[in-house]
Amino acid sequence: MHSPLVSADVAAALALRFQQVRQQTELLARPLSAEDCQLQSMPDASPAKWHLAHVTWFFETFVLERFEADFTPFDAGFRVLFNSYYNGIGDKHPRAQRGLISRPTLQDVRAYRAQVDARVLKLLTTADQGIQNDLAPLITLGLHHEQQHQELLLTDIQHALSFNPQQPAYMAPQPQVKVNPQPVRWHAYSGGLVSHGFDAPLDGAFAFDNETPRHRVFIAPFELASRPVSNGEMMAFMADGGYRRPELWLSMGWDWVTAGAHQLPLYWQGSAGNFHHFTLQGLLTVDPDAPVCHLSYFEADAFARWAGARLPTEFEWELAARALPAPALQPANLAENAAYQPMPQPQGDDAPAQLYGDVWEWTQSNYNPYPGYKAWEGVVGEYNGKFMCNQFVLRGGSCATPQSHIRASYRNFFPPDAQWQFSGVRLARNSQG
């Protein structure tokens, strides 16, 4: 990770950005009680208190410990408690036992955040230019890391609250968006040999290492659906026995269905004609026109097969996204809407709708390194590369993704059985021409 020399204006802008992102995390946690913040509902999810501490641990460990004169940790034990997966740092508390960390208290964690914030800001504004030059890329990485955890904080607390029989809401219900439902239309792309991956002039100043290097990929002609699959279409899949038909499922997917007795998308309850689902807004009636959400890769793939289509590759998805304005230049249901729930959106005639926001879209692409990929140097090199095994790529961002965090080259990734993220599906098919 390298950066050009940092001017005073750039340092001041980065300091402001640091305060904004850190404050947004606090705002997301504000509706939660100390008891809420302690909950861990499964090994893949973490307590909100752990998220608040871990993103702070990142700045203390990678920024303050390296650059602060006479560095002293806030609490030496936090180095182990709040390390996630950085083996180069040292020991880690077991991931599945994060909910057992009753101490430090939530109040202690907030004091930790406040102290680290003050020290990072002081370092950023008083260090000499040489140090600031090294600080800037690490702080920028830390802020994008924190934005990832902002989304995880929301998805993890939704999963935890879903086990409460009183079905408590994280937030007040929001007005429901109504649109005239439209049938899926297909947008054709000629493909060809195209450049793929992070492009700074188009995507902004930052990318994770897994988005690089930019390289050329051959894409056969294909068609992409005009919108994500809707809840109503998922209901039709279920009504046609979709969860009971092994011919629709990958072998591992069918094992997943039978082992877990899956018959509905995650958080759904009820029966045909009376489906409800648990959301961050509490228990809501399933809107048949909204994008279906919280699907595993297995469910997305089975639905595509049932629909006579397939999942797009990540290369096809990016080619279609490149034909649109950048996320910052188009309306999208991202975290700034503060609805944290996928919503139906109007469709245009000239391009697919909702490529950004609402739901992360599963692709059929394995999460692999690009040709010539090199992980970042040092311990931060553990950030992405070591997870390139048994995962699939998702694209586009969700209703909980900050707009400044998303771009056409962004690669999210999860194992194929993961459901608790805001994950949905957009269909693709081979060219019909």
Q: Please state the second-level CATH architecture of the largest domain.
A: Alpha-Beta Complex
Number of discrete domains: 2
Share of β-strand residues: 5-15%
Largest sheet: 4 strands, mixed
- What is the number of beta strands? 12
**What is the H/E string?**
HHHHHEEHEEHHEEEHHEEEEE
Fourth-tier CATH superfamily name of the largest domain: paralog of FGE (formylglycine-generating enzyme)
Give the averaged pLDDT, no decimals.
Answer: 94
Sheet with most strands: strand arrangement: 10-9-8-11
Question: Can you offer a commentary on this structure?
Answer:
The chain has about 425 residues and is an alpha+beta fold. It folds into two domains: about 10-160, Four Helix Bundle (Hemerythrin (Met), subunit A) (Up-down Bundle); about 185-430, paralog of FGE (formylglycine-generating enzyme) (Alpha-Beta Complex), CATH 3.90.1580. About 35% of the residues lie in helices and about 10% in strands. It contains ten helices and twelve strands. It has helices at about 10-30, 50-65, 80, 105-125, 130-160, 200-205, 230-240, 250-260, 295-305, 315-320; strands spanning about 185-190, 190-195, 215-220, 220-225, 270, 275-280, 280-285, 360-365, 390-395, 410-415, 425, 430. The strands form four sheets. A four-stranded mixed β-sheet has the order 10-9-8-11. The protein has a three-stranded antiparallel β-sheet with strand order 1-4-12, with helices on one face. A three-stranded antiparallel β-sheet has the order 5-6-7, with no helix packed on it. Helix 1 (about 10-30) packs antiparallel against helix 4 (about 105-125) and helix 8 packs across helix 9. The termini are far apart.
